[in-house]
What does this fold into?
Amino acid sequence: MSAPRSAYVHIPFCHRRCFYCDFAVVPLGDQAGGGGGPGSASIDSYLEQLHAEIALSPQGPPLATVYIGGGTPSLLTSEQIHALLKRLCRQFGVQAGAEITLEMDPASFDQHDLQALIAAGINRVSLGGQSFDDGVLESLGRRHRSDALMQCCRWIAQACHEGELRSWSLDLIRNLPNQTLEGWCEQLEQALAVEAPHLSIYDLQVEPGTVFAWRQQRGELPLPDDDLAADLMASTSQRLRRAGFCRYEISNYARPGHASRHNRVYWSGAGWWGFGLGATSAPWGERLARPRTREAYGVWLTDQHQAVHRSLQRQSAAALPLDDRLLVGLRRHEGVHLFDQARACGWDERSCNRHLPALERRWTKALQQRLLLQEGGRWRLSDPEGMALSNQVLVELMCWWESLPADVVRTPSP
Amino acid sequence: MTDAPVSRIRNFCIIAHIDHGKSTLADRLLQDTGTVANRDMQEQFLDNMDLERERGITIKLQAARMNYKAADGEEYVLNLIDTPGHVDFSYEVSRSLQACEGALLVVDASQGVEAQTLANVYLALENDLEIIPVLNKIDLPGADPDRIKEEIEAIIGLDCSNAIPCSAKTGMGVPEILQAVVDRVPPPADTVKEPTKALIFDSYYDPYRGVIVYFRVMSGSISRKDKVLLMASKKTYELDEIGIMAPDQKKMDELHAGEVGYLAASIKAVADARVGDTITLVNEPADAPLPGYTEAKPMVFCGLFPTEADQYPDLRDALDKLQLSDAALKYEPETSSAMGFGFRCGFLGLLHMEIVQERLEREYDLDLIVTAPSVIYKVNMIDGSENMVDNPATLPDPQKRESIEEPYVRMEIYTPNDFNGALMGLCQERRGDYLDMKYITTDRVTLIYELPLAEVVTDFFDQMKTRTQGYASMEYHLIGYRKNQLVRLDVLINGERADALTTIVHQDKAYNVGKALVEKLKELIPRQQFKIPIQASIGSRIIASTSISAIRKDVLAKCYGGDISRKKKLLKKQAKGKKRMKAMGKVDVPQEAFMAVLKLNQTP
It folds into this structure.
């Protein structure tokens, strides 16, 4: 497996925790900011750790994609972002034409900040809009409102139009309490109106320990029923297709040329670097999740100084195991080529011929039901039916995987 | 090992209700006599099977020989014969009681006597055993030994003036118990000179040595060189070894009247050396066997099907092997139109059924579907013939049958009287005929009912426990067959008859059962990619129907680098559930659905 060409950097700070969020975040309060405001000391000390972690990483070939996510990375100043990019550049190099994405929260920047971030090296923005409905935004615990979101979209679209940004994406949350089909379609129209060339649309997941989980326990979270949820998903797919978007992954839609290169890395089975608390890396096929709290991350980092984790150290190693590759690969529009994927995992012809047909047999039912489509050796989920029921296909995959002899399942050495 | 003159042997067992501390006390006796060194002590030594230890109950009895120096300075041999604590195995209990001269009646000093204990005490009294009352858990705050003594005296009529207070947990009272066994349990009759008779009270299958038989020599003696005859199975064997359980097996040359031991003789299956059979010598055989031998008769039946058809030969092999160690297990091939090939199996009771199922899955790594338990019906045909039906799906059509009879049991429920009403309601719902209610103490009663066995093998026990906060206990035995207005209730899934879900119910309950059953199935069968009609019918008449709507969305919204592991866990859980499903036509049906008929009352 070749060296990773992608890096994820996690900035955990937020003004406050949204009601649905269970990510590794550190809320700093509404007034916080990276430029000397409240919480800036905390940010400074974290950035020190982050720089140290990157510097500990083995050097590698230049990066093709960088993704600074969070949390709310736009809480950082452009200088801080610039310093991080410089650090990555020193450690790995950054390829000419690399995709450099920053996640931004509409309540945390103005047009001037945006310009400064672009000057610092950002060329793609992922905007956490979530909704154009003020009532919904309030019920999600977001700080921004629809007006601010539209304003941000205009600034970003303009920067994109003028060639300062290469592309941008808008996040929306779907399947929210009290949502109707009409209400959702209205949201979609607004998203199209602001001309975002990329949309990430996630159904609400009620995670344990969140405000939403608590509301749900008390019976105060009237989510759409399964049928409506399926209709919302199907109508999204249809409307966006008509608007010229490709559903290149189960929850991601892009106009031609605007698919996120960084995200595609996760679904391709290739490796990536990851830095920061709570971040997961998989540079050489083995995933490594970092601790989710400041304190534990600090301790972990100290240990790294003594001995760099073996998953980070190896210069060449096995790819992701086949079940993972298929699991993430099937999320893509183009699906997976079974035999190619198996070979990429180091399976020899004999293993392929002996074991892959059993998986194909398990998938026959889904094929008949047109959840799966087969073209040559390539299998992909139909849109919208197959993508809506992808777990049914993946469960068969898991059943198959569990039935394999141990020596086949074990990640083969290169 | 001490040589044991008959006068210094004491054979005894422990009678106790589940949880009243039998196994803990047994462990303590082994420790205090130095039979098992403390460091070798596994919790609950006598319960050998993993299953038993997990469930905290004794299923198969075991035995242990202890040497004990009594107050008179003499060495005594104490043989503790453990008894299974469940109604399914009452025959085994009766055989092990026959092997003893005394019994420790262990009663929880806060909870008092329970029905199962009572049944075994009566059995022990019938066998003329000396009974030593022991009040256990005396150290617990709720203990009320005086009240419990009164209760034992009132209920059983046993003198409790010298009942021994004890805490098996702390060891308090254990020396007193050992001394009491020596003082109060009579030695076995000295019948060493009589022809040899030994009672088999347990056996198990050892893959290397064949069946290991546990026996008590009732008269005469057996030596390692003897050739023996098993009087019921009429088989003869050369002995490979005999010995005692100390508690690990220890070879001996000879065992004489009064002693308890084991033998190995390359016996191929436990069915050849059944509990209750008499061992005698080929050269000088006894005239008659010991009394009381019967073959265990299965009372409860169910279908066992592999979830994947290609596991059928494995299931057959596993049952063959299991039968080597379980003489009560009966099975024959069954073919179901909905389920494919499987086996119809007979068990002593519900616990026995669960144990077999668990052993098949654990020890033989099989994925099984078990259908709801049924009893054996007697069908009187128009042509005058009689048809025994152990599978509801094969009940002959109404036009061919004259009447159906079903097995009845006499049930005794022992309960604090606060729960009378609740229990009478339960028995009424289960088509019980009230016989009697006896006040045993001022606040405890025995309810006596006659009930169809079919109503008992559903969730009767669970319901009894639920409705009495766990306080009631029960005991029953078969009393014969009775005619009733019974009908066959079929289930159709996606328009196809699911014969594995067929049940036989009373005509008056058929409509309600049908309605509840389809609703329960709707709850238990996961939604699939198409709408599934679920119907209940009697003959060709549909009496209840519902449908499961199609699933249209089942997807992980987000899946990036960090959360693949977590998402995979969810999928693996689903995959595990899928392994426990049986494809019936186009529909995947989970194991729980086959037990739906037992769970109709769970959400009232």
In short: Residues 409 and 479 of chain B are 5 Å apart (CA to CA). Chain B touches chain A through 26 residues (CB under 8 Å).
